[in-house]
Amino acid sequence: MDQQREKFSSRLGFILISAGCAIGLGNVWKFPYITGQYGGAAFVLIYILFLLILGIPIMVTELSVGRASQKSVAMSMDVLEPKGTKWHLFKYFAMAGNYVLMMFYTTVAGWMLYYFIKMSAGGFVGLDKDGIAEIFGSLLQNPTLMVGFMIAVVLIGFGICSQGLQQGVEKITKVMMLLLLLLMVILACRSLFLKGGEEGLRFYLTPDFSALKEFGIVDVLFAALGQAFFTLSIGMGAIAIFGSYIDRSRSLTGEAIFITILDTMVALMAGLIIFPACFAYGINPDAGPSLIFITLPNVFNAMPGGRLWGSLFFLFMCFAAMSTVIAVFQNIISFGTDLTKASRKKVVSINLVAIILLSLPCVLGFNILSGIQPLGEGSSILDFEDFIVSNNILPLGSVVYVLFCSMKIGWGWDNFMAEANSGKGLKFPKSIRFYIQWILPLIVLFVFIMGYKSLFF
Ligand code: PFF
Ligand code: NA
């Protein structure tokens, strides 16, 4: 007999862990820099539209598959698919996605950890704008330092996971998320009152649709699509796993909306913290992945008690990043235990080594391997791995989930409806089947194909 499957101890646990999986570097690091690259508020609007019309329904399909199968994506479709169909092959695609995500996520999480330590040690005190930018530059040039922090992230992540679902993952993540939500509100309020920040707010909040022309509407849509899926963690079973740890007392639409609202709040607040700061300190918002690291220390330097606030800020950025790392590690560990009879301990040790090795290319891409620029002039291995996940695996994987839940030759609409709608709370509307089965996948595929065309042809 299988050992009894682990469960969350409470609904709050489920919501906060799922939010912890969703809320991460995608909100506090990627959302601000992509918004900056694509011209601000108009991008934000499209992103929110995609969350509403694509993200929420897709999240409901994923949670349903997880809850109905009681398995990770490594076995969920094997359990639910009609006999003779091949949906289960999706596992290879989805599992690969989880690994590729960690291949760059651990590096950026390591940057956050480094900044936390540097900030609390007073390493930014008295530096001007150029001195601050210099610190990030020299971090990238130092492979040993970056590898060290990347390994620390992997060790902490697996350390917490190996304590088990309730004692490790749930307990730690719950506290981290509650603190994070609180601190974001405080800092956003402070940043709003920054002198010279109004222009940043305008950039961030007043849509200027000529920006869409300037950057190319297709490119903006493609970037917003990838970011919407990335931020919600949908399309490769990372959210589905948490559906497998809950019972049927609540219907899933309300839970998906709740998670999306929390995630969106944190992203929007990160923007409120960063854009006024960019304009107040004359830093171009299109700086890319370095944005948060070269803008925010300026703000903290100029703020009374800035060293303390800055340390807290980066500590909480570590929380955001770690809660996602822990969630994805938990998912990866359950691939191992779903697919083999190996013990949790053995699965953890193998993956620990594997993920450290797999994370090396991203780290080295900024120094020793900086000649490799897979997406063209100036791009990095990090950009490439992110592109593989955000713009390929997540959108295509999401389409697979949606079709699996709506097509007769898949798990099917009736099974999906029964699962999604069992329990108290908001029900998924039966009447939008046509939209789910046809329109939604077509929107995703259309943006995907057009995006590729404009990028490469
Ligand atoms: N949602 C996470 C973030 O915003 O940082 C990233 C992520 C996690 C994406 C898990 C995809 C995933 F499966
Ligand atoms: Na997110």
UniProtKB/TrEMBL annotation:
Is this entry keyworded Transmembrane? yes
Membrane topology term:
Multi-pass membrane protein
Membrane-crossing ranges are 12-29, 41-61, 92-117, 145-165, 177-195, 215-245, 257-283, 308-329, 350-373, 393-413, 434-452
Which UniProt key words apply to this protein? Membrane, Symport, Transmembrane, Transmembrane helix, Transport
Against InterPro entries, the record matches this protein to: Na/ntran_symport (IPR000175), SNS_sf (IPR037272), YocR/YhdH-like (IPR047218)
Cite the PROSITE patterns for this sequence: NA_NEUROTRAN_SYMP_1, NA_NEUROTRAN_SYMP_3
**Which PANTHER family does UniProt cross-reference here?**
TRANSPORTER (PTHR42948)
According to UniProt, the name of this protein is Transporter
Q: Which organism is it from?
A: Anaerotignum propionicum DSM 1682
